[in-house]
Amino acid sequence: MRTAYSVETVxxxxxxxxxxxxxxxxxxxxxxxxxxxCADLLGRVYGRRVVLLVGSGDNGGDxxxxxxxxxxxxxxxxxxxxxxxxxxxxxxxxxxxxxxxTVTPGDAGPAIRRADLVLDGIVGIGGKGGLREDAAxxxxxxxATRAAVVAVxxxxxxxxxxxxxxxxxxxxxxxxxxxxxxxxxxxxxxxxYAGSVRFVGIGLExxxxxxxxEALQHGDVAALLPVPGAESDKYRRGVVGVAAGxxxxxxxxVLAVAGALRxxxxxxxxxxPAGPAVLARFPETLVSDRGPxxxxxxxxWVVGPGAGDDAAAVTEVLAADVPVLLDADGLRxxxxxxxxxxxxxxxxxxxxxxxxxxxxxxxEEVEAARLxxxxxxxxxxxxxxxxxxxxxxxADPDGGPVRVNxxxxxxxxxxxxxxxxxxxxxxxxAAGLTARDAxxxxxxxxxxxxxxxxxxxxxxxxxxxxxxxxxxxxxxx
Length: 477
Ligand SMILES: NC(=O)C1=CN([C@@H]2O[C@H](COP(=O)(O)OP(=O)(O)OC[C@H]3O[C@@H](n4cnc5c(N)ncnc54)[C@H](O)[C@@H]3O)[C@@H](O)[C@H]2O)[C@@H](O)CC1
Ligand SMILES: Nc1ncnc2c1ncn2[C@@H]1O[C@H](COP(=O)(O)OP(=O)(O)O)[C@@H](O)[C@H]1O
Ligand SMILES: [K+]
Known about the structure:
This is Bifunctional NAD(P)H-hydrate repair enzyme. With 477 residues, this protein is an alpha/beta fold. The protein has helices at 7-18, 25-42, 58-72, 89-97, 109-114, 133-143, 190-194, 218-224, 250-261, 275-281, 311-319, 329-333, 336-341, 352-359, 363-368, 370-381, 417-430, 435-454, 461-476, and strands spanning 2-4, 49-54, 76-81, 101-103, 117-121, 148-152, 174-178, 196-200, 213-215, 239-243, 267-271, 286-288, 300-303, 324-326, 346-348, 384-387, 393-395, 402-404. Ligand NAX is lined by residues 14, 18, 26-27, 30, 55-60, 62, 122-129, 131-132, 135, 152-153, 178, 202.
């Protein structure tokens, strides 16, 4: 499991560690890791031109010490001091001793134009809001060159705890982060500004229960996958009910069933008007021509994909004492008080537009602050919320770390792929996973299936469903 910590937690872990170490030791560890990452990126250090953008805090100190290390290996290093009187004094002295030089922002043009590599040491976890004007102007100049950009700890201008980007920010090719991941490195839009992320351990030990974000990895998912044993039969593996599709959208039913058949449940029961289309594609489906209440026992329901205005099915499903996944039209048709009153788990799977409609805000606002809105929706509905999109989040209503999915790919943004996800997650619910595990495991498998199916080319949602068995084999190793 990869975890991310709030600035407050990182700071207190730093204080605890610093009390045990000689003055400056942590910064030296950070700078050594940073310089090594820069050297790897450059391939050869000798003769390369490196520019440091240096703010007034310790983030600038890291950049200065790393610059000194690169200068000692033969790089030409120029530090642009954004606040000349307040730059990290010992770091600056080290750079000058190693042969580096300094310039003011006004004189930085030629150095930036010639740079092979730019280190962003403007702000780290001490940053507040977007870049200020002088820094933003410099960063704009950097963006117009071919120089590689390495962000120190975080891309300057992004909000460390939320992943929001409320003003100008650095766009890095690589971010070298120290001691602990910060939420901004895992959640969009900030994550996109970070480029690839390299972790440098400096000995910090944030408390195991203090994470604000968690990202599952292969081993975590493998341990959660429902695998049948000798005593299993189709009922013990769980039956998932799918109430989806309409005369207008029969395909949504087919795709949700396609996902459900690959999620580990022993059987898929379908109710709704798309029975013939479902059977034609998946003859193993148990098709019922009655409503959810009369359809026979299930261990979890999926309701909503392509369902049109069938409010009765949503109401019946919400009244069932089994886990329920609400998607698409089901989100719109569900009565909030009925969801809040449920005692069995509820998993809601909106995309940003659906979440915005439920919260009464603009879609852009949800996309700009994904973490806050996923948490807010979970609290309002007392349900687990899986907010789809470029970094899918799964938030529980009672707080705790939010799961963030690391496997997604924009190729998944194709009609019907959300239907596959809802069937898949519903199947995992029926197999006995908690709403949070079912949602985050489904997002993980679905993201990988998108990658496997696509491999760089456009795919349809049915291709994503077809790739799921291969993803299971890959994850189970
Ligand atoms: N504390 C530690 O033990 C360690 C800290 N390290 C580094 O220290 C950083 C944190 O250092 P600081 O606490 O000094 O804080 P930062 O260096 O992140 O930023 C604080 C400074 O930036 C200014 N500032 C804030 N927002 C700004 C904005 N939007 N535009 C321009 N300037 C802005 C503030 O006035 C302040 O002077 C970490 O991100 C990491 O890079 C590393 O050296 C590892 C060890
Ligand atoms: N930019 C993106 N990067 C990664 N995944 C994305 C992106 N955009 C959408 N997705 C994923 O694609 C799927 C689309 O689902 P959804 O919006 O419900 O579409 P539909 O209703 O057509 O099925 C979701 O799993 C979502 O997380
Ligand atoms: K930075």
